[in-house]
Amino acid sequence: MAGTAPIGIFDSGYGGLTIFEKIREALPDRDFLYLGDNARAPYGPRSFEVVLEFARQATEHLFARGCPLVIFACNTASAKALRSIQRNDLPRSSDPTRRVLGVIRPTVEAADALSRTKHVGVVGTEGTIASRSYELEMRKLFPEIRVVSEACPMWVPLVENGETEAPAAEYFVKRHLDALFSRDGKIDTLILGCTHYPVLLPLIRKFLPAGTRAFPQGACVAESLKDYLARHPEMARRISRGGNAAFLTTESAERFSRAAEIFLRARERVRAERIELK
Ligand code: DGL
């Protein structure tokens, strides 16, 4: 269709595929262009300045390929770069009608709807937790909710190395959940504030206190995007239809294809194109 383009989906690497999968289920007739900055992942331990610079480059790349709307599937980029790009970069860009959306706000809204005790836990990368983005968004939207957070720096490497069934995975999952719940025994809803954590869900469920629900974010991000497009028909008209997905990576295309199978649970063969960001 002339004048239309895919929705851009950006992540530091493969993990955003867990979000992409849900978005595609919610919007099956739309086209998508996924960009994983695998060569520079993980973003979790990186500084604000560096994550902002990388996220800017990725956004510019997706805009240059025509995407009018870019979703930051990455929590760390949503936490550290989204607001600055929305406030400072977009208004000054050559097309200020383009949009960038993240994962934190829809996740916070979903957590509020799920929690009865109004005590919510968040697990994420060091970067996401240090930014306090979840607490700040929660305080803005739902000030009555108490948020307790825990950085889990070992969880991403365990997933990326395919070690989710190893004893080390049990050890690190239990250790961080115990630490979180020992600080607040009333938590009934746990936000998995990182793209990789849905892969650890069976293990996380094993160590969750009874009556507590772990809460992956793909479905609520997807629903929120669907709702956004319904409320913004001018943007929906700019998104191409066809049900196609293409994949870009800053690392080897072959490596991306292999690892993508972990995250898409081997349901499809992914062909990627290698690009450079600068
Ligand atoms: N995508 C990142 C996130 O959701 C996890 C991987 C990384 O640290 O780059 O925070």
Automatic annotation (TrEMBL):
GO MF, any single term: glutamate racemase activity
Swiss-Prot/TrEMBL catalytic activity: L-glutamate = D-glutamate
Record: residues binding substrate: D11, S12, Y43, G44, N75, T76, T195, H196
Enzyme Commission number(s): 5.1.1.3
Pathway note: Cell wall biogenesis; peptidoglycan biosynthesis
SUPFAM superfamilies found in the cross-reference section: Aspartate/glutamate racemase (SSF53681)
Sequence similarity: Belongs to the aspartate/glutamate racemases family.
Function: Provides the (R)-glutamate required for cell wall biosynthesis.
The protein's name: Glutamate racemase
Organism of origin: Candidatus Spyradosoma merdigallinarum
Lineage, highest ranks first: Bacteria, Pseudomonadati, Verrucomicrobiota, Opitutia, Opitutia incertae sedis
Name of encoding gene: murI
